[in-house]
Amino acid sequence: MMREKMREEHDFPTKKIFTYLVIVGLALLSAMNYQLFVFPNKFAPAGLNGLCTMIQYVLHINVGYMNLIINIPLAFVVYRHVSKVIAVRSMIYVVCFSLSLILLEHVDISAFAYSTDNGTSTILGPLVAGIINGACYSMLIKACSSTGGTDFVATLVRKRHAEMNFMWIVFTLNSLVAIISYFVYGYQIEPVLLCILYSFMSSTVSDKVLKSGRSAIRFEIITDYADALSEEIITKLHHSATLVPGKGMYSGHKTNILVCIINKTQIPVLGSIIAHYPHTFAVMSSVTEVMGNFKHMNTNGTESNIFLDTGDGSAV
Questions:
Q1: Alpha helix positions (H), 116-189
Q2: CA distance 269 to 146
Q3: Which of 43, 96, 215, 237 has an alpha carbon 20 to 30 Å from 72's alpha carbon atom?
């Protein structure tokens, strides 16, 4: 126990530094995403940056400057009333993202940007931009951070009105951006549709990435050989099982139910184990998320490492 505690204390600063480096890297990637796929296709992405993008389009003021100016007071309020960790880490992202946009304005990367002069395949720009943004956003959430802007506003609203759904707050704010873009981009419906497409792809990808590491398969195994079967599960799959006494209501026969949650890739192995025991069958169902204070084990039986520091646990 003492050795594990010392190892955790040793890993903590390393994990924290790595988390900050990841946030900086995500900010740089997001800035490139805007320069290559958002700005050339003349549409407003979701959130605060969507408003800043429209202002840049009309007044030619770099999004980086406006993003910094608007987020600083919001971050201060979040720091005081919600979470210091979220405010600090989100501002690290905002500062790096904004500075990258400002610097990239003086670098010619038009050769790598995607846009079409005749309007063909216009949806590819927001499609790719939404995928990249969704992946970045999900990683930020895992690092107890955010992109600022709309997330800050939604967090503050939720703080005062806890009954309100966070996603509906963000959806409402993003809808306003989509509506405003109709008037900014010459009263055309296409920028509105591109904004909706971008938002849909971004939210879909972020949701998939966030759940990808926590999805699993739940087995309820009805068996008379609970001890032998659970031993095989532990030794071969490196998962445990929970024994629940059961009774067949038709025959009145007393039996056992083993409840076991495994990875999707381990389904064939567990199936072959169950097949060796007579009169044993299982009911399988999908699990979208697994939560709790337990060890995360790899398929080889070793404890898996969580690479990002989760901060104070108050992630947006």
A1: 124-142, 150-160, 166-184
A2: 39
A3: 43
